[in-house]
Design brief:
The protein contains 18 helices and no strands. By secondary structure, the chain is an all-alpha fold. Helix 13 packs antiparallel against helix 14. It is globular and about 55 Å long. It starts with a helix and ends with a helix.
């Protein structure tokens, strides 16, 4: 890197380091000032406890879940009496080892797991950049570690980082034509089925039948195991829980105004709950069609995958601020799409929206997670900016193709003389 190029990186590097410091400051403030036990981890601990006590048939019974959560953290103040476990049963099995310790110990163990996953993800991204003969800017590493939705996922002991890692694995496998690994990654990411379905549509659109076969096989094996353990009723119970999750409003921990997707945006705009639910569901179906069209184009995998991540976040019918962690992949894909065209990616132009996400997290922390407007609007702002950036990468890709074709024709003309 030249001295001039190095100097041009300094403003972004300084701004990025300040962003990192502020983000960690908010994280530490929240950790030391919030006395609530377990946070969202109680959802996973309750599911794991039910499985550990051999009550798999009652895994999706709300009354059973409420009793287990009461034993874990005391009586719930939520309407409905519980934060319901609405994940596939194999997710609960992952957390069974945490039931062997106290809820307080499990809380800190999962905190360590969250940070480990984040740094493994960062190392994997850096390693893949080198493998693909690109240099990952320091500002990109800073952006990943200080991304506000990721920090919220760690604060709330959520599984969003696992989802990001699985989607990253899917992207790498797709790019390197490792279809078996791609299928496994998609299958494991299906603990958020409304999001994983977009990847399945992409596989179908590109006719990646081997990857799709692996996806179906892994999911069948996971569900088959739990049918043997808990009986076939676990499938219908899970479907019933998904239906309850879709229909519940301001109960069981489901709050549309807190969702930074289209449903949350419509709710904040004053649209009625029934109308916003129907419109967001219709938009999600349309987003599946849009993903199919995207993957049928000749655009690079980086562009297609980045757009898929954007659509997954903005139009998923059920999603919270920590789930917007997936947007970091849109950012990484955009940077790679520019690198593929030999065009520098100027991150300093995107730093304002990173700071916007930080401000949204700051408001959430200070308001005790009650003021969601800033979070919803900022996620949409970030998504729209990344959409423009990725579309510009499409334009660069077409321009490069035209230049290459024009050069090819000129060479053919010279050779024919």
């Amino acid at each position: 890197m030249s001295a001039a190029s190095s100097r041009s990186q300094w403003p972004a590097l300084v701004a990025g380091c300040l962003l990192l410091a502020l983000t960690f400051g908010i994280y530490l403030y929240h950790e030391f000032h919030d006395s609530s036990c377990c946070r969202d981890l109680v959802v996973f601990l309750s599911g794991a406890s039910i499985l550990a006590h051999g009550q798999g048939a009652n895994l999706y019974d709300v009354t059973t879940q409420g009793e287990v959560q009461k034993a874990l953290i005391g009586p719930s103040t939520l309407s409905g009496g519980a934060l319901v476990f609405n994940y596939p049963p194999y997710v609960g099995a992952i957390f069974i080892p945490l039931t062997w310790v106290s809820p307080q110990a499990a809380y800190y163990i999962w905190l360590v797991v969250g940070w480990v996953i984040l740094f493994l993800f960062l190392l994997s991204v850096r390693s893949q950049y080198r493998k693909w003969h690109y240099t990952m800017p320091q500002t990109t590493a800073i952006a990943i570690v200080s991304f506000a939705p990721i920090i919220e996922a760690i604060i709330w002991r959520q599984m969003s980082l696992i989802l990001v890692f699985l989607w990253w694995w899917a992207f790498v496998s797709w790019r390197e034509a490792r279809w078996g690994q791609l299928g496994v990654a998609v299958a494991l990411s299906a603990f958020k089925p409304q999001i994983a379905l977009l990847l399945v549509v992409g596989l179908i659109a590109q006719k990646r039948w081997k990857a799709l076969l692996y996806t179906i096989s892994v999911q069948a094996a996971l569900w088959g195991l739990f049918v043997l353990v808990a009986g076939p009723g676990v499938i219908s119970s899970y479907i019933g829980m998904l239906r309850l999750s879709a229909q519940s409003v301001n109960t069981f921990g489901f709050f549309p105004e807190a969702m930074p997707n289209l449903r949350g945006l419509l709710t904040l705009a004053g649209v009625g709950l029934d109308v916003s639910s129907l419109v967001s569901l219709a938009a999600w179906v349309l987003s599946l069609g849009a993903v199919g069209l995207v993957w049928r184009t000749s655009w690079s995998i980086s562009i297609c995958f980045g757009l898929t991540a954007l659509l997954a976040v903005l139009f998923s019918p059920h999603l919270y601020f920590h789930d917007a962690s997936l947007l970091i992949l849109a950012f990484i894909c955009a940077e790679l799409a520019y690198a593929e065209q030999g065009v520098p990616f100027n991150i300093i132009r995107l730093l304002p929206v990173f700071y916007g996400l930080l401000a949204a997290l700051f408001i959430l922390v200070l308001s005790d997670w009650h003021l969601f407007t800033g979070a919803v609007l900022t996620v949409w702002l970030f998504g729209c900016v990344m959409f423009v950036v990725l579309l510009n990468a499409v334009y660069l890709n077409k321009s490069k193709s035209l230049r290459d074709f024009d050069l090819f024709r000129k060479r053919r003309a010279v050779d024919s003389l």
